[in-house]
């Protein structure tokens, strides 16, 4: 019995000793890991401390810079327009007759007053001859009646005839005088009717499809002979937002407003015109107003129905300060640019953006001739030392990009017609 108790006690002591040994091993392993981590961090910090702090702080950041410039900036509004003719005239006959001769061809350009068609007017000529004969007869009758009245007046003064006889002679003369006026008007009317036999162009323009041929019977208002479209000069119609109406009217009050149009053709030719029409009401559905500009079109490149890129210049910002749009950065307090001083340190400068168009921005808040960063500004902070790729202000046009006007770039958003700064 005593032996069994002693064996159990020895077993419990061995178990407790094993647990204590495992605990000590775990604590030793943990201390070794902590020591290794501490040594690694200390070594890293020592390596970092070996680098001089002034070398980190003065490490220059490569950037591209340019000078701010001051110039007159035209405020442009770009939109799409449609070419439309100034007028289209439908040529119709004024009398019922047969076509005798067609003097033009389809698609021909005709001048105003040029002969288009000749009608068979033999009936009108006969009516004119009849009216002329009736006029001659009335004149003879009036001449005889006036001589008769003169004799009656002499007899009345000698008391050979009564007052009633004299009144009859006077009435006859008055009647024939009125008849003479009627016959003269009839002759004039027949001459006009006969003149309708020669149909001439009422305007200068291009003829459309010819609807009749020699021998065709035509009637007034029922027969369309041909249509003539005026294309020189020609209109380009477009719309403007209603908010631009006041600025446009102010510009028109000072003089003609410059407007240019460019067709979607390979030559990219741009043509200047003038505003000739502003609609009398704003479209309530779209909030826009219809505008028409007139363009010279002697070469016929502008064709009715074509689309055109319209650029309207209603105002000019005088002596505006401009920077490339790449120079603009967005900060917590608004738009800013990084200005590079003589010590090549970049400092943020808040600016007020007045206009953005065609890659340039009109700003306030900086001075002309200051050196600003246009590339690499995302890596800058206040006081960062920079390393410009070249001397400020000697950047080529290709580097500045937005400083060059590219009127053919239709992807540039159209600015508002802002008032002068």
Please bin the fraction of helical residues: 25-40%
Taking the alpha carbons of the first and last residues, their distance comes to: 114 Å
The ordered H/E elements are HHEEEEEEHHEEEEEHEEEEEEEEEEEH
Assembly state of the chains shown: single chain
Radius of gyration, whole Å: 49 Å
Largest sheet: 6 strands, antiparallel, barrel
Q: Percent of residues in beta strands? A: 25-35%
SS element count, helices: 6
Contiguous uncertain segments of 5+ residues: 1-10, 46-57, 394-421
Overall average pLDDT: 82
- Structure class: alpha+beta
Shape summary = elongated
In spatial order, strands of the major sheet run 2-11-14-13-12-15
Number of strands: 22
Describe this structure in words.
- With 421 residues, the protein is α+β, with helices and mostly antiparallel strands.
- Helix content is 32%, strand content 33%.
- The chain contains six helices and 22 strands.
- The strands form four sheets. It has a six-stranded antiparallel beta barrel.
- Helix 3 runs antiparallel to helix 4.
Distinctive features:
421 residues; six-stranded antiparallel beta barrel; single chain; disordered N terminus; elongated; alpha+beta; five-stranded mixed beta barrel
Outline:
The chain is α+β, with helices and mostly antiparallel strands and 421 residues long.
Topology:
Blueprint: H1 2-49, H2 53-57, E1 61-67, E2 69-84, E3 88-91, E4 97-102, E5 109-110, E6 115-119, H3 122-157, H4 163-195, E7 198-200, E8 205-207, E9 217-218, E10 226-229, E11 234-241, H5 245-254, E12 258-263, E13 270-278, E14 288-295, E15 307-324, E16 329-331, E17 334-340, E18 345-350, E19 352-357, E20 360-364, E21 371-375, E22 384-388, H6 397-400
Parallel strand pairs: 1-22
Antiparallel strand pairs: 1-21, 2-11, 2-15, 3-10, 4-6, 4-9, 5-8, 6-7, 8-10, 11-14, 12-13, 12-15, 13-14, 15-20, 16-17, 17-18, 17-21, 18-22, 19-20
Helix pairs in contact: 3-4
């Amino acid at each position: 019995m005593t032996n069994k108790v002693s064996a159990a006690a020895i077993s419990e002591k061995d178990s407790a000793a094993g647990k204590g040994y495992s605990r000590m091993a775990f604590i030793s392993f943990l201390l070794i890991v902590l020591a290794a981590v501490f040594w690694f961090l200390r070594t890293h910090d020592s390596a970092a401390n070996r680098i001089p702090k002034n070398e980190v702080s003065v490490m220059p950041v490569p950037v591209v810079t340019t000078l701010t410039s001051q110039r007159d900036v035209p405020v442009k509004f770009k939109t799409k327009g449609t070419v439309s003719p100034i007028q289209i005239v439908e040529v119709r006959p004024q009398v019922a007759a047969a076509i005798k001769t067609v003097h033009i061809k389809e698609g021909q350009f005709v001048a105003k007053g040029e002969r288009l068609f000749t009608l068979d007017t033999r009936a009108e000529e006969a009516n004119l001859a009849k009216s002329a004969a009736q006029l001659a007869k009335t004149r003879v009758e009036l001449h005889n009646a006036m001589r008769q009245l003169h004799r009656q007046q002499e007899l009345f003064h000698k008391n050979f005839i009564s007052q009633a006889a004299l009144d009859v002679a006077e009435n006859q003369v008055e009647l024939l005088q009125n008849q003479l006026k009627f016959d003269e008007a009839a002759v004039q009317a027949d001459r006009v009717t006969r003149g309708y036999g020669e149909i001439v162009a009422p305007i200068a323009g291009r003829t459309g499809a010819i609807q009749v041929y020699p021998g065709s019977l035509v009637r007034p208002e029922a027969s369309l002979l041909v249509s003539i479209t005026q294309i020189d000069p020609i209109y380009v119609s477009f719309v403007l937002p209603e908010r631009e109406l006041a600025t446009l009217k102010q510009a028109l009050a000072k003089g003609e407003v410059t407007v240019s149009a460019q067709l979607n053709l390979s030559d990219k030719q741009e043509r200047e015109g003038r505003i000739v029409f502003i609609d009398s009401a704003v479209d309530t559905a779209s909030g826009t107003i219809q505008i028409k500009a007139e363009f010279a079109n002697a070469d016929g490149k502008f064709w009715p129905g074509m689309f055109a890129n319209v650029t309207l210049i209603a105002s000019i910002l005088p002596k505006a300060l401009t920077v490339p749009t790449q120079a603009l950065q967005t900060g917590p307090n608004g738009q800013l640019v990084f200005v590079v001083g003589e010590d090549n340190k970049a400092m943020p400068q808040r600016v007020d953006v007045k206009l953005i168009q065609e890659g340039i921005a009109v700003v306030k808040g900086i001075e002309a001739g200051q050196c600003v960063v246009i590339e690499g500004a995302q890596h800058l902070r206040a006081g960062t030392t920079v390393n410009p790729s070249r001397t400020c202000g000697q950047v080529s046009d290709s580097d500045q990009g937005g400083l060059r006007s590219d009127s053919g770039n239709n992807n540039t958003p159209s600015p508002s017609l802002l008032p002068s700064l």
